[in-house]
Structures
1.
Amino acid sequence: MSFKTILVVVTLAVVAFAAPSKHAVCSQGRVASNAACCKWFDVLDDLQTNLFDGGECGEEVHESLRLTFHDAIGFSRANPKAGGGADGSIMHFAETETNFHANLGTDDIVEIQRPFAIKHGVSFGDFIQFAGAVGVSNCGGGPRIQFLAGRSNTTFPAQDLTVPEPSDSVTKILSRMGDAGFSPNEVVALLASHSVAAQDHVDPTIHGSPFDSTFSTFDAQIFVEVLLKGTLFPGNGSNPGEVMSPIPGELRLESDAAIARDPRTACEWQSFVDNHSLMVSRFEAAMAKMAILGHNARDLIDCSEVIPVPSKAKSNSAVLPAGKTMADIEGSCRNARFPTLSTIPGPATSVAPVPPS
Ligand code: HEM
Ligand SMILES: *[C@@H]1O[C@H](CO)[C@@H](O)[C@H](O)[C@H]1NC(C)=O
Ligand SMILES: *[C@@H]1O[C@H](CO)[C@@H](O)[C@H](O)[C@H]1NC(C)=O
Ligand SMILES: *[C@@H]1O[C@H](CO)[C@@H](O)[C@H](O)[C@H]1NC(C)=O
């Protein structure tokens, strides 16, 4: 090969390599890796302003994050008819799916989100995962979840009983989640979502009661507070799926309590207590997997750059709520000592319901 030929080959190679680059400048000069991602910047602006109250981590964010799970988990390796995974079926067939017992309360956010998806001409499956990823990025210390676009807008309803209930045993939950492709450790990681969560339907007499005392920040507090000795029911006594909580106003799910103490999951649970960055990276990985259940990543376009970068966590470790001591921790991991946590000074903690926005 002459020098000239080599030069031509190299030049051609460079051109060929450069040609498929789809870098695009989108609205407000924002840059996307692929022109197909540009429209998601416009969806982002609309959601932050008109759904998430200007970029807050409030009720609509919590509900949108929950919806990513309830749509996606309609999926089974053993039974392809159980559902299409993260396919938007909970929005397409809302009258069917939101009436399943485990989905109680999801109808609100489905109806609120639907007009946004239609307005922007994006599939319901894409929209639900996008809204959850954007929403949780508003929470302090939050994750930055991968976002792949291009899910089909055509699908079929999921069957009932794909979504775990808080009254289910750990064995039943791990087996259902395993059938969808998740390991016990990944189930624990996904439950970091309950750090920004509250309930309306387990005990309907205490609307908006949170699962931990810092429900507007995506921190490891949930992993400590679920391990504290339960002392009270925050509302009108015991309900199915509820066990005693350690703090007035806080509701503890039976499933969270059991998973925190089960030998199959207790060590992963405990590992997050003083390691926020570990919790976030494991959550991001498990959420990325969940968001494409029923799809092949190769068929989708990576538009992750559209997801905002969340603010940093204030601390890498959770704390003991005021009024609690290390003796209140029901540490359940046999192979590692429970980390020593500092206690917030002041009078015993109690929590107020999530304010409706
Ligand atoms: C593994 C078993 C799980 C069970 C049994 C469970 C159960 C529940 C229950 C009973 C509620 C309260 C709903 C209400 O009464 O309004 C809730 C809320 C919530 N869940 Fe889960 N969950 C599980 C996993 C997940 C996962 C994987 C996610 C991840 C995205 C998630 C995200 C949420 C969020 C964000 C809320 C708060 C919703 C709000 O504040 O409006 N959950 N969960
Ligand atoms: C997706 O399907 C719904 C009907 O279930 C429809 O209202 C919506 O316009 C469709 N969106 C797209 C982008 O095709
Ligand atoms: C609270 O529970 C009691 C029984 O334990 C029941 O009679 C009462 O109606 C409940 N109150 C509300 C507001 O649900
Ligand atoms: C957090 O977890 C990572 C990964 O296991 C580990 O490398 C790091 O040392 C941990 N940090 C703390 C503060 O324990």
2.
Amino acid sequence: MVHSASLCACLSLLSVLSCHSHVLPRLSFPTGSPGRSLSIFTNPDVYNTTTLLLSNDEGTLFIGARDSVLSVDVSQTDAMTMKEKLDWSPSEKDLADCAMKGKMKMDCHNFVRVLQELNSTHMYACGTFAFSPRCIYINSKTFSMATGPSGKPEEGRGRCPYDPYQKNTAITVDGELYTGTVADYRGTRPVISRHLSEGSHIDLKLDDTLGWLEDPTFISSTYVPSEEKVYFFFSETGKEYDFIDKFTVSRVAQVCTSDVGGQRTLQKRWTTFAKAQLLCQAEQELPYNILQDIVSLSPPEGTSEDETLFYGIFTSQWQVNLGRSAVCAFSLKDIKKVFNGHYKVLNRDTLKWSTRVQEQMANPGECGLHNASDNTLRFVKDNFLADKSVRPANQGLTLVSPDKSYSNIAAQRVRGARGRDYTLLYLLTESGYLHKAVLLKNGVHIIEEIQVFHQPQPVKNLLLSVSKGAVLVGSSEGVISVPVSNCSYYWSCAECVLARDPFCGWDPVMKLCTDIHAHDHLVQDVDEGNVSVQCTYMTPRSRSVQSRTLSSEVVSVSLNEVVHLQCPGASHLAKRHWERLNSQLSPKIYIQSDDGGLSFVATPSTLGHYLCQSVENGYTQTLVAYNVKQKSSPTVPPATLNRPHSTPSTETGIKTPVLTTRPITPEQTEPTPKPDEVDPTVTPKDSPAATTRRSRNFTRLLGMEKEDSRMTEPGENLQQADTPSYFQELVVVSVLLALCISALLTIAFNRFRHLCPSKTVPQTPSSRRDVEKSGSATPQERESLRGNSPCLEKRNGQAPNGQSHNGQAHNGKSPITLSNSMLNSSNGHLPNTPI
Ligand SMILES: *[C@@H]1O[C@H](CO)[C@@H](O)[C@H](O)[C@H]1NC(C)=O
Ligand SMILES: *[C@@H]1O[C@H](CO)[C@@H](O)[C@H](O)[C@H]1NC(C)=O
Ligand SMILES: *[C@@H]1O[C@H](CO)[C@@H](O)[C@H](O)[C@H]1NC(C)=O
Ligand SMILES: *[C@@H]1O[C@H](CO)[C@@H](O)[C@H](O)[C@H]1NC(C)=O
Ligand SMILES: *[C@@H]1O[C@H](CO)[C@@H](O)[C@H](O)[C@H]1NC(C)=O
Ligand SMILES: CC(=O)N[C@H]1CO[C@H](CO)[C@@H](O)[C@@H]1O
């Protein structure tokens, strides 16, 4: 029982490892790379930039920082300059009070956590103000503090947290401020509320009803005009899963902007609050349950607002998924459907949730309940947790990053060549890299990663300026502007097409890779990246011209010296290998290193021409050619030969001499092979006989690389008699290797099976109080459930309270039988297991 459960978890782990390991950025730009110049805004007087707000014309960036609000000119893409700074510090007395409360001096500042455009003339800002939150109006024109309607400084309680390390969210709609934050000094009273309302529109907040919010971490909020609703995104303790201690769930909650509260019941309280679970989970895998960041992407023009997508980054609370994160997309349509469905109800005596079976008095979450009856409002007050979970649009995870933890996300729709729309995601990693990913039919392609921070930074903010073509990254130290693309970095048609960047296309006339907006006749293939189809416009003449421009670099060596040849390759998705003109590269003589370099001892037989070639997406190009020659004077000391402008560690930012077609096609004397042996992906038009031969060797070469042989044995031709012997050796070694690996895997798997249950327990230790509070489960039941939790999750998501909490279905069945039946139900999807 427990074994099968852990087996399930192990299988899911294995499938995660095997399925998602290919999400590798194609290019990598460390800080300072010439290919991506970043502009940085820092100021010695500015610390802890925490809030970013772009003006409507995207020409000014407002920054909420420590004890100040700044306005920065971002109208120039390559520079950010400070326009104005508004000081807003707590007084000496405020600081003394803060210190009296026992707070650290460095936290007793005013950290600006709300910065919103209120109306055409004013902005609104709130700060922690030495653990005593305050809000101010800011005159946008003079950038000075202004008084609000009340004439005095506004209290910030319920609008901004007290503690600078607590997360919050805020959004203004029609001059009213909607916030999600904790509303007390100790940080235990979370609230979603509305402020700055006028007239019959009154300020509203959550009722103190049990369970409206359970220790939430607020992430973001958004207004959807067509629904007249504000949506809040956060994670909180999922009390409906009371058989797992401190199980975190991600939520979407909603309120209507037309809400004015009830007349007796729910007076000055939301009558339209409802929440639902966001479930980012793949089949047979643990859920990614903790929301880190989420953004909305409006639908393409002309389509219904229901097609709005919310792209969220999720991490998991389980050790097995540590350091990994997933991106899921949820559609507004699905969110609406879940809110329109059934709701769960909390039994106040047992504190257990169940699906409501009684008569439905109202539709919870519906707008316009202001003069509904008390009965209706009482029903609404108790029915706020939607029964169903919101599942990802397109029934799957958008992306799983096997080794990167993402913290922030921005999304954009880009119109590529031929009028096709693509979704681009900008994902900031914990380690300080910005990934640019394009979503394609058959998965995600990460176009590039750009290093924005040297070190991981605690406070981060990601803001996309579409009109400026820049991603603004806010950290504790300042703001960095990253251009969304730099097409001129791609120097050939092949590189431009292989990049699969929807911003970039190859201009066949100007012969450069350029911004797609400028022209409409550009060559681009974001979906396939098929160079051989896209770059065929080149005339045979221009091809031959280009081949002739490849001059091999002369490398002078003395005999018996160790020669290192470098092969700088830009793309992480390309496979690099070496070839020689007149002899093969025997693994006994040649060593190919991880960085693509080739090492060998100079002997009379190893002198000659070498080519380093890369194969990416079926397209082969020569990255570099060398001519290794013997020095005229043999007395010169031996030296390591590097290409002058390349260092082994940097693979990027280097343009290498490149051919768009096969440069050297040696004359062949052997008969032309049969057509069925021809690999079409590398067939140039000029020399069919020669290339088909090469193609076959390529095929073989690639096959051998798959067997994890670092040594390549491609050879050009000739010395054919020797070939079989090397091949045999290779086969024997490979078979032995495979045997070893499978033996190791079996051992590891068996060990892992035993370790697994303990690993899948949520990291947060259970507190005794929680155990007692959640009632019925005995310690033994809890223990066994813990072991089974990995498999339970999926089930929970589908019918979170179906069998385990629903009074009828529960029927005294122990949780063990429950998970047993579940396993059976999921067995249909399990691959046949060896154990
Ligand atoms: C774009 O790339 C080119 C070529 O590497 C480089 O010269 C230029 O500075 C880059 N521009 C930006 C804005 O990064
Ligand atoms: C402010 O910045 C300092 C230095 O980067 C950092 O140590 C501190 O945690 C930050 N404070 C907050 C509230 O983010
Ligand atoms: C914007 O809000 C401020 C503060 O409430 C108010 O004084 C000002 O008149 C408003 N401006 C407009 C154009 O409504
Ligand atoms: C509902 O309330 C509005 C004011 O909020 C009032 O004008 C209207 O007459 C009320 N409708 C009913 C049916 O009571
Ligand atoms: C490129 O397109 C050609 C012709 O449609 C096709 O034969 C080839 O397989 C494609 N290559 C790749 C890598 O998709
Ligand atoms: C090293 C190697 O595999 N060379 C082969 C290249 O292709 C020719 C033609 O098929 C073979 O005869 C060589 O053995």
